[in-house]
Amino acid sequence: MRNVKAAGDARHARTGKDGLIYSKDGVLLATVDSFASSVTYNNAKYSVMGDAQEHETSNTFSVSLTMSQVVIEDDQFIIELMEAMETQTMPVWGFKGTLMGRNGSTETVIYDECIPSGQIDIQNLTVGDVIKRNWNLFVNRPPALQQQLTVV
Question: How far apart are CA 66 and CA 120, in angstroms?
Answer without folding.
Answer: 10
